Amino acid sequence: MSKKILIGINWLAAGILTLVLLFAAFIPEAFLNKENWVQPPVLIIVSIGLLIIINGIRKGVDLMTPKMYRWSLIIVGALIFMAQLFVALSFIDVARADSYFVREQAIALARGSQVWQDYFKIYPNNVNTALFEAALIKPFLKLGITQPWPWLNIIRFIWIDTGLLSGLFIIRRWKYWRPAALLLMITWLLSVPVYSFGLFSYNDPLIMPMALNIIALGLIFKNHHGKIRWLAGIGSWLLLALSVVMKSNQIVLWIAIFIILVIGSFAKMVDWKLALKWLVGSVITLVLFFGMFSGIAKNNGYVKSPDQSTPVTSWIAMSLNPQTQGQYNGADFYSVRSAKTATEKKTIANDKIRERVSEMGPIGLTSHFVQKLGVFLSHGDFDAINLNQQWVKAPSEFSSHQDSDRFWALLVAQVGYITLLLGIIWKLFTTRKHLLVTSLLSMFTLGLTAFHVLIWEVEPRYALPLLPIIMVLGTVGWSSAPQFSFNTSRRVAVSGLMAVGIILSTFSLIQTTNLQAS
Question: Could you count the other beta carbons within 10 Å of the beta carbon of residue 71?
Fold first, then answer.
């Protein structure tokens, strides 16, 4: 029975992602509507072409000797290193919105100031991020490095790449090393969000690889003994606690782990005593981290201001605005912020919630939640191309062609995302092995999606922690799906259709880029 529940969790996640796939392939422009999109037929044709290339890579890997495959991994790994190093040293973005206030406050804290901007009285959720950024900046200032931004870019890339290492660890345990390891590394190398968020001075890059890292450490905790077990356990507790204090929606990850461990204990897939020890350790670490960061904030001069801070219900009210698809809305925000006391703010927000739920009704709410799902997960760049649009430093060639570069980057990201969704959907619908980890990844996907679609305001970047999961399960799905091959007549027919599709796609792309240039 427990195994059927785990399979059901995977199927539910696959069903949601199937709807997301339809949004991503056919109507991505219906959500956000900030970008210049190619026509859906072009997306589909190019995606089919990419699937054919992936199939070819799989066949090529089958012909490789172990030594050749190992060298292929080394070469792609070297390309990842060089590409990320180039981007880290060549680009420094102009922080804006939340990241601007966090960066400015972090610099002030690192220099010894205890004066906090009013922004942090309104948004106390970003206090811990500012403290963390200050802790990173301070050692550089002590060394006399007044412009540490390239170094911080490098640190972010190194941290993001821990998700790649954890993904490879999981793939090896699942015995999909050939060809999934190579496919995952190629996907990582070409991932637009990896490069964009590596330059983003906010808490999203910190959270991005957390789920995979915690699961990899959890597997070590489960399957080893002695010091290795407890070092892995402590590491997983520290990462989970850090993720929750940095971004409160990551409590969903702890809930997902709790649910899967309970199910796994009943199914005798994990020792219940060991599961209980991990859960108790994680709760203690969470409590200690909240207390520690609260003390650090107080020691650095931060004092809460309940009458200035925005209540939780204000974000829920904002999420129910059908005119904005549940995204951040300045009018909603300022209508609550303008109230002078915490009580008045809560009253205004609560009234908005009741009013909007009543106006939309069950059908309207369902339609609204579908719209929010599209905003949350239909864009393969996770809004990365809109994060960094102004630069302190950037190559001149990039700066002069930024609009066209963003257009092509979005196309690459969306096509890669569509094919990854196909892979993960196949994996979740067909898997009967490794159910504990796969179901945990599915549960986290469902939980984070439900949190933002049903409760909170929504932005594509909030879904970023799901990207490494989609990349790992998607490439495993590619590796486990049947390979396709054609006889001579079918190969000619398919080649002809693809040639026509490529010609039509080329005309469409030329037309789109010309319109963009004009």
Answer: 12
Rounded CA gap, 163 and 132, in Å? 20
How distant, in Å, are the alpha carbons of 12, 177, 189 from that of 67?
40, 14, 21
Helix (H) or strand (E) holding 391: strand 391-393
pLDDT digits (tens, 9 = 90+) for 18-46: 999 999 999 888 887 667 788 888 888 88
Q: Is 392 helix (H, G, I), strand (E, B) or coil?
A: strand
pLDDT at residue number 518: 45
Q: Which two tokens stand for residue 438?
A: 């796969």
Q: Estimate the share of the chain in helix, then strand, then coil, as percent rounded to the nearest 5.
A: 80, 0, 20
d(CA 87, CA 95): 16
Question: Omega of the bond prior to 460 within 30 degrees of 0, cis?
Answer: no
- Euclidean distance between the first and the last CA atom of the chain, given in angstroms as a whole number: 61
Indicate the SS3 state at residue 92.
Answer: strand
Q: Give the C-alpha distances (Å, rounded to integers) separating 172 from 184, 368, 481.
A: 12, 41, 17
Angle (CA) 191-193-198 rounded to 5° is: 110
Residue 195 has pLDDT above 80, yes or no: yes
pLDDT in tens, 217-258: 999 999 888 899 999 999 999 999 999 999 989 999 999 999
334 CB-contact burial (10 Å; exposed 0-12 / middle 13-18 / buried 19+):
exposed
pLDDT above 90 for 333: no
Distance separating alpha carbons of residues 328 and 375, to the nearest angstrom: 12
Q: Where are the alpha helices (DSSP H) in 378-465?
A: 396-400, 402-430, 435-450
CA atoms within 13 A on the CB side of 378: 24
Measured between alpha carbons, how far is 139 from 145 in angstroms, rounded to an integer?
9
> What is the pTM for the complete model shown?
0.91
The encoded tokens of residue 382 equal 């996770």
Which pair of structure tokens corresponds to residue 250? 């990551």
Q: What is the spatial distance between Cα 94 and Cα 387, in angstroms, rounded to a whole number?
A: 10
